[in-house]
Known about the structure:
The protein has 232 residues and is α/β, with parallel strands linked by helices. It has 9 helices and 11 strands.
Amino acid sequence: MLIHLSNARIALPERTLLEQVDFQVDESEFVYIIGKVGSGKSSLLKTLYGELPIEAEKAEILSYDLCSLKRKHIPQLRRNLGIVFQDFQLLTDRTVDENLHFVLRATGWRRRAEREERIRQVLQEVGLEDKLTAFPHELSGGEQQRVAIARALLNHPRIILADEPTGNLDIETGKQIIELLRSFCEQGTAVVMITHNLNLLQNYPGIVYRLEDGRVTEVTAEYNTPVFMEEA
Length: 232
């Protein structure tokens, strides 16, 4: 099990965000997190990468105990995670190449030749080999999100955490981003994705958790209707 939360509570100093959370993710699983604005979706993801504290009977991600995780160990955890944000969060004054070199240097890649080879590999995986010297403002929204995904892939993550990765994109570009994420899932990487676009759940089935009234409920059966039932 890559992620295992059991009877977990996620809270800010002034209020509880989520409680009695049971949430599991394993290899090659594509997991959606849905819910209204303010239901705690982003907070759940932030907990998984060590941004928010958690109390739980069990709270493990990649064998790290989130309840006792020391701040000095958070960078080590995040090296094993790929994090994709809705607003891309690229460095606007640096080229695609420089953005990716920055991350690799920050995560311990000292040899330039090895960094360059890894950058070439991830850009090829997302179909942007020809955008190496482009600045973010020279790219479309879909291309910027592909660069963000390439950045998330740099350290061969076992889990990708994606917070509304299609939220700022048109429908067709959003579909391309989902298909790209699912292709990595098929290679063994687990994907946990927040989305408000419920149409994606029908077109690209996965495991579905709904956040509502401070609770997390698996509702996969509500969205993953088998094709033969639709045809009947």
